[in-house]
Design goal:
It contains four helices and five strands. The protein is of the alpha+beta class.
């Protein structure tokens, strides 16, 4: 007479392993998406903090004629230097210290400020109150999940919504 054995069969073991692999894949994917969203929120928060500090300097310039921060540079909308495109002001270490931000720019990683938004204000259908008087550019940019890299605060705000 054959004694019936109790225990886990090979099929049950394989099914259990497959279910665990699927759950691990879902967990990793959700974790990656959470990290990417957190990175975007962090980048936007940093840029908004710089924007708020630079707006104070900009308003002081408008009302008292003080000097604006930064060294004039020209930047293309996709992040490459271009002499025909928009005028930005690259913030140096001293500029960042003046506004109370501890950031040490390098040749590769730096922030720029765009003070003059007259081009956007002249576009039809654009409400001037909805335009920030200052835009911020970060040279490293933010690479979205679609693979496209965004460099300006105004573009990153669009990604958040």
């Amino acid at each position: 007479m054959i004694k019936s054995e109790k225990g886990i069969t090979m099929v049950m073991l394989i099914i259990t392993v497959i279910v665990l692999v699927i759950l691990a894949g879902i967990g990793l994917s959700a974790g990656r998406n959470l990290l990417k969203k957190s990175e975007l929120e962090d980048r936007v928060a940093q840029m908004q903090m710089i924007q708020a500090k630079v707006e104070e300097v900009y308003n002081e310039h408008l009302y008292n004629g003080t000097e604006l921060l930064g060294t004039e540079v020209n930047i293309d909308s996709d992040g490459s230097p271009d002499t025909e495109i928009e005028k930005w002001y690259k913030l140096s270490r001293d500029d960042m210290n003046k506004i109370g931000i501890d950031f040490k720019p390098t040749d590769k990683f730096y922030y720029c400020v765009k003070y003059d938004l007259t081009q956007e204000e002249n576009k039809e259908g654009v409400n001037k109150e909805e335009i920030d008087p200052i835009d911020i550019y970060y040279s490293a940019g933010y690479k979205s999940t679609s693979g496209k890299t965004y460099y300006t605060l105004s573009k990153l705000k669009d990604l958040e919504s």
